[in-house]
Amino acid sequence: MAKYRRNRINDAVKEEMAQILRDVKDPRIAGALVSITGANVTGDLKFAKIYYSVLGDDKAEVGKALKNASGFFRSELARRINLRITPELSFEYDSSAEYGANISSILKTLDIKSDDEEEND
């Protein structure tokens, strides 16, 4: 499959999963701030990894809830996206936001002088 087609499918799955996530009535998911950060569908469209992030400390509970609701997500995805095969969904926690915040805090602690300060010294 052409790479541009896979990218379009990945984007479509990501957008639809974000919309479907709003309709879930499970309090573990609805009560937490969950966002879909990405999707990676295999070339044969049989499997898809959905990357999510959670704002808060209940990452494990949200992960369990997403895994339990994967059948609902898959059926809704099949209804909304016209694909020959609806992929089986697996959910993976995306820690890139935490990693970025950690790097930002490290950079703030560094004592870096600007060019103007160096000329004055």
Describe the structure.
The protein has helices at 3-23, 27-30, 59-68, 70-80, 96-109, 115-120, and strands at 33-41, 47-55, 88-93. It has 121 residues and is an alpha+beta fold. The protein has one domain: GMP Synthetase, Chain A, domain 3. Strands 1-2-3 form a three-stranded mixed β-sheet. The termini are far apart. The relative contact order is 0.16.
What is this entry, summarized?
By secondary structure, the chain is α+β, with helices and mostly antiparallel strands.
Structural class: alpha+beta
Number of helices: 6
Strand numbers in spatial order across the main sheet: 1-2-3
How many DSSP E strands?
3
Average pLDDT, to the nearest integer?
A: 87
Kindly give the count of domains.
1
Main pleated sheet: 3 strands, mixed
- The CATH homologous superfamily: K homology (KH) domain
Query: CATH topology, what is it called?
Result: GMP Synthetase, Chain A, domain 3
Strand content: 15-25%
String of helices and strands: HHEEHHEHH
Instruction: Just give the CATH class.
Output: Alpha Beta
Shape: flat
- The end-to-end distance, rounded to whole angstroms, is 60 Å
Radius of gyration: 20 Å
Low-confidence spans: none
Query: Level of helix content?
Result: 40-55%
CATH architectural type: 2-Layer Sandwich
Write the layout of secondary structure elements.
Layout: H1 3-23, H2 27-30, E1 33-41, E2 47-55, H3 59-68, H4 70-80, E3 88-93, H5 96-109, H6 115-120
Parallel strand pairs: 2-3
Antiparallel strand pairs: 1-2
Features:
single chain; 121 residues; alpha+beta; GMP Synthetase, Chain A, domain 3; 3-stranded mixed sheet; 6 helices
